[in-house]
């Protein structure tokens, strides 16, 4: 595996050589092409090589390759960050900027984002302040890692008797470990925790488990998070921002913390009546169930009565639904939908030796036959493989232009990795409806990446603002809920029939079950995140979250709760960013309005979607892409409707 380590060394050496050539260009001879665009290409070359190694780490069937790539990824991460701090490169870009050339469109944006990235790293500050910024970043990274590790390492469980498991299916009970006294152990791991909270009839055991879960991360994480919040505020001040939310949103679609604040409070006010109504519904059910007319819903009751209400109202048989979704039919249907909508054809290419025999390679062509790009599907589980579903970019589409030349477009390549059971003789791999959504979603990311026409690699494919990147895929999930598209996605594994209309109607109704509660819960965490990263530090973090939850949900959390000690997103990455989950849903719902009313498979709308949303990457501001596609200002009306409000 020495060649992987050698590859990493070569990537670094190549980047260094290329950067030093770029630095040597005399100031007077600097052009956009030989400086800003060249830097983008140099960084892309290193990144593409890095992506391939990182990808192998996730998919290689050979343990020794995965091990070697892991080391190479660590080395590359460190070295490439170090190179991004190269003072000489910064000077080169500044020299070009000082020429004051008037730029438009993608070029203007590329120069701005390049300069902005330097500013955000502290490059235009005095050197001792910059050192402070760098130190701060290092401390935050360390604390963030520790915060996450404390959550991952947190293990706890409750021990219950067979009687205390009443309400849970035998298959669940059979999967539980037992202690030496024969008691069953229910851990905090999702496959144990979620079904227990939803179905265990014993309320005091539910309470015991919920209490333990609410202490995830421990007291130490509260101290770490408080320290992180302080460091983030300091970092923002050093760099000249009002607060951490302003710093984090600057290079996102939201642009400013204030926009996030307004967005969140608007949704909160909209969702309040819905949450109140849902709480009344499950309270009534609890009163009926327990015979206690005064009974109230506690934190350990919500999942339980919500599940009971769902069964009462919708009487869904997940198994029956699955019978209509054999994997092969879903894949064919999905291909047909995307090909029709986006005006492309997918052709399987055979005879290429890839990392595993299960991997399928396709080329994408326009309907006129012109080659657009390639994608791969690696859909089935195997030992040591990445265990979730995701789309990986392998080549970023871009225009390869040399000084003075016309240039040629480098076709993008992406791969979808998933872990759906492999269809074999006698087992058609029936997919849950949820997994059908996942398939549509991840393949949507693939399309976003491989249909790009952006000229510069850093603006290409799904390299968009962080709070927008999920919106195009989220929107495409709707195709799992429409009669018209479901006709293409379903084929009963025995009868060959499409899914019956009444089953689809049931699915659509159940989609809205407790959606106010789910939305408000997400909103509570987003508001907490926003508060702690904008307001001066005072109230203990634990209290801030508790008060927010009581206000928004109407149900007090556990009195022994240490939340947010277990709120992993706050450790780094999603800090002042949790709003993104809701933000993208609003844009996804709004974009979807163009496909409603019989236009789910309309190639005209699909074409506009391709041109405005998928092809442009981030060569324009995301808000302008949405405006362009909608032909109007976006709003949150469709989102509120989608959760059963307004209309
Ligand atoms: Zn996604």
Automatic annotation (TrEMBL):
<dbReference type="GO" id="GO:0006508">
    <property type="term" value="P:proteolysis"/>
</dbReference>
<dbReference type="GO" id="GO:0004222">
    <property type="term" value="F:metalloendopeptidase activity"/>
</dbReference>
<dbReference type="InterPro" id="IPR024080">
    <property type="entry name" value="Neurolysin/TOP_N"/>
</dbReference>
<dbReference type="InterPro" id="IPR045090">
    <property type="entry name" value="Pept_M3A_M3B"/>
</dbReference>
<keyword id="KW-0862">Zinc</keyword>
<dbReference type="GO" id="GO:0046872">
    <property type="term" value="F:metal ion binding"/>
</dbReference>
<dbReference type="GO" id="GO:0006518">
    <property type="term" value="P:peptide metabolic process"/>
</dbReference>
<keyword id="KW-0645">Protease</keyword>
<dbReference type="InterPro" id="IPR024077">
    <property type="entry name" value="Neurolysin/TOP_dom2"/>
</dbReference>
<protein>
    <recommendedName>
        <fullName>Peptidase M3A/M3B catalytic domain-containing protein</fullName>
    </recommendedName>
</protein>
<feature type="domain" description="Peptidase M3A/M3B catalytic">
    <location>
        <begin position="196"/>
        <end position="644"/>
    </location>
</feature>
<comment type="similarity">
    <text>Belongs to the peptidase M3 family.</text>
</comment>
<dbReference type="InterPro" id="IPR024079">
    <property type="entry name" value="MetalloPept_cat_dom_sf"/>
</dbReference>
<dbReference type="Pfam" id="PF01432">
    <property type="entry name" value="Peptidase_M3"/>
</dbReference>
<keyword id="KW-0482">Metalloprotease</keyword>
<keyword id="KW-0378">Hydrolase</keyword>
<keyword id="KW-0479">Metal-binding</keyword>
<dbReference type="InterPro" id="IPR001567">
    <property type="entry name" value="Pept_M3A_M3B_dom"/>
</dbReference>
């Amino acid at each position: 595996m020495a060649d992987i380590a050698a590859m990493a060394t070569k990537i670094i050496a190549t980047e260094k050589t290329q950067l030093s050539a770029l630095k040597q260009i005399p100031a007077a001879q600097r052009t956009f092409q030989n400086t800003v665009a060249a830097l983008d290409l140099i960084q892309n070359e290193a990144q593409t090589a890095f992506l391939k190694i990182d990808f192998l780490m996730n998919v290689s069937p050979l343990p020794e390759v995965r091990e070697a790539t892991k080391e190479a990824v660590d080395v590359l991460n460190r070295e490439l960050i170090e190179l991004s701090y190269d003072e000489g490169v910064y000077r080169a870009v500044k020299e070009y900027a000082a020429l004051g050339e008037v730029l438009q469109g993608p070029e203007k944006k590329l120069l701005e984002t390049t300069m902005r990235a330097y500013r955000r790293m502290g490059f235009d500050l005095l050197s001792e302040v910059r050192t402070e910024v760098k130190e701060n970043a290092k401390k935050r990274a360390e604390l963030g890692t520790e915060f996450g590790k404390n959550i991952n390492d947190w293990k706890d469980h409750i021990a219950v008797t067979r009687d205390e498991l009443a309400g849970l299916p035998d298959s669940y009970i059979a999967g539980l470990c037992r202690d030496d006294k024969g008691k069953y152990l229910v851990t905090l791991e999702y496959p144990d925790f979620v079904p227990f909270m939803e179905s265990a009839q014993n309320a005091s055991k539910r309470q015991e488990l919920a209490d333990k879960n609410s202490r995830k991360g421990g007291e130490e994480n509260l101290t770490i998070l408080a320290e992180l919040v302080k460091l983030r505020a300091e970092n923002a001040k050093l760099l000249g921002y009002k607060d951490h939310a302003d710093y984090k949103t600057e290079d996102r679609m939201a642009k400013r913390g204030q926009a996030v604040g307004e967005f969140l409070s608007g949704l909160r006010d909209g969702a309040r009546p819905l949450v109140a109504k849902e709480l009344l519904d499950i309270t009534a059910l609890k009163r009926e169930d327990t015979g206690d007319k005064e009974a109230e819903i506690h934190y350990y009751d919500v999942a339980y009565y919500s599940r009971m209400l769902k069964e009462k109202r919708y009487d869904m048989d997940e198994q029956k639904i699955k019978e209509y979704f054999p994997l092969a039919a879903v894949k064919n249907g999905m291909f047909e939908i995307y090909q029709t909508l986006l005006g492309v054809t997918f052709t399987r290419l055979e005879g290429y030796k890839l990392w595993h025999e299960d991997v399928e390679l396709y080329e994408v062509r326009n309907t006129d036959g012109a080659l657009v790009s390639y994608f791969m599907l690696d859909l089935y589980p195997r030992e040591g493989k990445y265990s979730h579903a995701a789309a990986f970019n392998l080549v970023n589409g871009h225009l390869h232009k040399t000084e003075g030349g016309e240039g040629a477009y480098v076709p993008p390549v992406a791969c979808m990795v998933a872990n759906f059971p492999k269809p074999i003789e006698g087992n058609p791999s029936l997919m849950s409806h949820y997994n059908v959504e996942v398939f549509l979603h991840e393949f949507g990311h693939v399309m976003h990446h491989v249909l790009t026409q952006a000229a510069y690699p850093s603006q290409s494919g799904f390299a968009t603002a962080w709070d927008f990147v999920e919106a195009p895929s989220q929107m495409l999930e709707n195709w799992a809920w429409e009669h018209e598209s479901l006709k293409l996605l379903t084929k009963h594994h025995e009868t060959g029939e499409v899914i019956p209309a009444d089953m689809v109607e049931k699915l659509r109704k159940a989609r809205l079950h407790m959606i106010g509660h789910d939305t408000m819960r997400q909103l509570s965490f987003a508001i907490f995140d926003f508060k702690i990263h904008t307001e001066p530090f005072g109230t203990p973090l634990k209290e801030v979250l508790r008060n927010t939850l009581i206000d928004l949900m109407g149900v007090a959390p556990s009195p022994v709760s240490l939340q947010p000690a277990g709120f992993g997103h706050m450790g780094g990455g999603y800090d002042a960013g949790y709003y993104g989950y809701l933000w993208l849903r609003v844009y996804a719902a709004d974009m979807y309005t163009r496909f409603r009313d019989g236009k789910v498979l309309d190639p005209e709308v699909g074409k506009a979607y391709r041109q405005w949303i998928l092809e442009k990457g981030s060569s324009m501001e995301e808000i302008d892409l949405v405006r362009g596609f909608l032909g109007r200002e976006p709003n949150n009306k469709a989102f509120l409707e989608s959760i059963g409000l307004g209309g």
